[in-house]
Write a structure and sequence with these properties.
The protein has a single domain, classed as 3-Layer(aba) Sandwich (D-Maltodextrin-Binding Protein, domain 2). Helix content is 45%, strand content 19%. The protein is built from 13 helices and nine strands. The chain is globular and about 65 Å long. The chain binds (2S)-2-hydroxybutanedioic acid (LMR).
Length: 327
Amino acid sequence: MRLLTAAVTTMALTFGATVATAAPVEIKFSHVVAENTPKGQMANKFAELVAERLPGQVEVKVFPSSQLFGDNKVLEAMLLGDVQMAAPSLSKFQKYTKSLQLFDLPFLFRDMAAVERFQSSAEGQEMLKALESKGLVGLGYLHNGMKQLSASTPLRVPADANGKKFRIMTSDVLHAQFEAVDAVPLKKPFSEVFTLLQTKAIDGQENTWSNIYSKKFFEVQPYITESNHGVLDYMVVTSAEFWSDLDADLRSEVKKALDEAIAYGNSIAAEKASSDKQAIIDSKRSEVVEITDAEREQWVAAMKPVWNQFADEIGADLIKAAEAANQ
Ligand code: LMR
């Protein structure tokens, strides 16, 4: 009996020691924006929820502001297993799929409510699978907001952008969009934008109120045209290998926490857009240029032909479904 007790104790100790020393599954979450943004807040909330619900089993480490990977490297790093999650903007997947270029088409979505309607539709949900053949899994969409045009001179009509250099994300649609107004687009990583603007290597860029505010672009851009000409949203992604290797129960808990964190990020995105815009106005560092409907129509007329250039790659039906979300 004593022998048996000793054996059981030894087993328990050994088992206990194994459990105690087993390292939690680590999820490195890399992103490029500041923490006080919808994406930054979403990632932090995700880490918090996982810490509360899966202590010792899964640990989420968030790396903001391109500290771990810039937006041009993060997906390659994910496929190599060096990072497990990220939420690049939908404009940064073109190397992996053409269909997501849809979201870059200028003046496609009237507002964020239309974006939300399309993303929740059957077509929008299907697009989360667009990266599967490349070994990536789309876990959900996350909002930032509508893009505005910032510049060193006021931009009221397309002719004002003539010959000006604009930083763009790595998207051929965005390239075509700026060429359509005879501007000069330059694909550059987000982490370089502030310096490019400060040193006047470029004249302008397009981004959301949240990114213009949190990365201080407004301090080096005297004019921001409220153009709402496009959308900047994200897809939260992981690698198929990491996701399928994760224990099924843990995977379902992690997904639940992520869904809640995304819902939280989405719930603060609209409020952030308007408070960050107000903070920029209050700073008096940058003037918000409001354009008339007639001026806006000129931008639409100049940029919308870009749709035709990409209709085959994206799919005409998908463009129609997205347009229908405006109703
Ligand atoms: C940009 O590169 O301008 C944005 O995609 C940054 C971001 O992640 O919001």
